[in-house]
Amino acid sequence: MDKAALTKYILDKFAGKVELLETGKVEPVFKLENEFLLEFCKSINSDETLHIDFLCNIAGVDTGERFEVVYSVASVKNKIRFDFKVVMAYENAEVESVQSIWPGANWHEREVWELYGINIRNHGNLTRFLLPDNWDQGYPMRKNWDAPDFVRMPES
Amino acid sequence: MGVIKKLPVYLEHFPGGGIVATSLDYVLSQSQASSIWYLLFGTACCAIELMATGASRYDFDRFGMIFRASPRQADLIIAAGTITKKMAPRLRLLYDQMAQPRYVIAMGGCTVKGGPFYYDSYAVEKGIDHIVPVDVYIPGCPPRPESLLEGCLTLQKKIKKQKIGDWS
After folding, report:
1. What is the pLDDT of residue B167?
2. Nearest CB partner across the interface for B85, out of A132, A145, A152
3. In chain B, what residues touch A153 (CB-CB under 8 Å)?
4. A131 to B123: CB separation less than 8 angstroms, yes or no
5. Which residues are paired to B77 by β-bridges?
6. How does pLDDT run across A78-88, given as a tens digit for each residue?
7. Cβ–Cβ contacts within 10 Å for residue A26, how many?
8. What is the DSSP letter of A154?
9. Which residues pair with A18 in a beta bridge?
10. What is the pLDDT of residue A138?
């Protein structure tokens, strides 16, 4: 399935719930509502045409005004790839865990929680693994993060 | 350690004992400087240079230096590579487990001052002198094996100047 056909298939299948973003230069990028996330993941996983069986990556994004969580997924069998993201407000940001569909999400979700402070609902093991266990200086990948020994790159 | 430290005190009561104590200082510091055993502690790219220094072309062995994988038998720790905040307590633990007298060489920009991770980094310790006392700093990213050898010669000079009484 080529890129155009894939985009059309997903937009048709989830009409009104999924929106195509212009940013996808290499792979299509979709945007969806936070509440629809788990249902969407289950659906693309069980769909015979898509058969998304591999979660490549989960990344957190802090744009300064809002948080985004970007999921990169692929199908090994059908050789397709695309990204989708959920956007949420800065306060009380949280997403549902997708571990029930792709168990490999475990570490990625811990990273997102650890570095951005985005809560993962139903994760079950939100413990630190990149930062020291006794870390108490907040979430370092947030735009407004600061610490006593943190040196920001001077403007060139 | 305790007995050796007190030897000069006892010896100096005897006629000619001062010369013996001085000679003892000399012999001990010479032998100590010529047989530094260093603890393996390479965390990043500097460790490759460290390995190269230990290999046949640069040949660390001619200083009587050999790798030890245990802090108990090592008297020098060469911190080669980036030390993150998560790694820092482990470095301190290994340093504490080494027998005294013990020395530290900070090899490369990262261990000296955070290196390229000085800016915009939340995870990297900006200098291992926050964690352990450093005897010799070796700049470079990474330093060439010659720099490490020079650093070791500098450390040897430092050791040779020491008196038994300086041991802590």
Report:
1. 64
2. A132
3. 119-120
4. yes
5. B39, B104
6. 889 999 999 99
7. 9
8. P
9. A32
10. 87
d(CA B157, CA A71): 57
* AA letter at A138: G
Size of interface A-B (CB pairs under 8 A): 26
What tokens were used for A107? 């570490």
Of A151, A131, A137, the residue nearest B87 (C-alpha) = A131
Q: Which residues of B touch A147 (CB under 8 A)?
A: 122
CB contacts of A62 in chain B (<8 Å) are none
Nearest alpha-carbon partner for B68 in B35, B45, B44, B46: B35
Give the rounded percent of residues in chain B with a pLDDT score beyond 70.
Answer: 91
Look at A152 and B119 and tell me if their CB atoms are within 8 Å.
Answer: yes
**Spatial distance between the Cα atoms of B132 and B167, rounded to a whole number of angstroms:** 17
- Higher confidence at residue A19 or residue B166? A19
Q: What token pair was written down for A23?
A: 């940013």
- Check A147 against B122: CB less than 8 A apart: yes
CA distance A102 to A46: 12
Residue with tokens 């993941």: A41
**Model ipTM over 0.85:** no
